[in-house]
Design a protein that fits this description.
Order of helices and strands: EEHHHHHHH
Strand content: 5-15%
Structural class: mainly alpha
Radius of gyration: 16 Å
Low-confidence stretches: none
Oligomer: single chain
Largest sheet: 2 strands, antiparallel
């Protein structure tokens, strides 16, 4: 498939974060990643789509390679633009996490995007809600061990 992330499971190979998360939610719904409440579920999907479709693709390696020496500037611009909108949304939806006090699909999308922001030296000061949620999530063991800086294929300069 040549796509990252990819998951081989149940005799199929899936790529794309949200497709993988939806499949896991459908086949292994414990713990739930989408709230039962339709309004909260819509908010989780909105935030997840905003990150996975509106911010993250603009920093894919194929795009950054095309940007050449301007790749850091480009990544920062894309992240800042996306985080400005995301911060406003999270100020309305957040509890301890992105939507209320239960970990959701939105939180799974947030942590790697904040890691990307840190990688490209984005000032997170203007985003206190994003920063607070990320910090709370990184206290959870599942997020500690799955952090992008702790993956076996992470380049040495980006490892924790």
């Amino acid at each position: 498939m040549q796509q990252v992330p990819a998951l081989k499971i149940d005799g199929i190979t899936l790529s794309q974060s949200l497709a993988i998360i939806h499949y896991l939610e459908d086949t292994r719904p414990n713990p739930r990643l989408l709230p039962q409440d339709p309004k909260k579920r819509a908010q989780v999907r909105m935030i997840s789509d905003h990150i996975a479709s509106g911010i993250q693709p603009l920093q894919n390696m194929s795009i950054l390679k095309q940007m050449g020496e301007r790749k850091t500037e480009w990544a920062q611009k894309c992240i800042v633009s996306g985080f400005q909108a995301l911060e406003q949304v999270l100020q309305q939806t957040a509890g301890r996490y992105c939507v209320g006090d239960e970990v959701s699909m939105a939180d799974l999308c947030l942590v790697p995007q904040v890691a990307n922001a840190e990688r490209f030296n984005v000032d997170l000061g203007p985003y206190p809600t994003i920063t607070r949620i990320n910090k709370a999530l990184l206290e959870l063991e599942a997020f500690k061990v799955s952090h992008p800086s702790r993956q076996p294929d992470t380049p040495a300069e980006l490892r924790a």
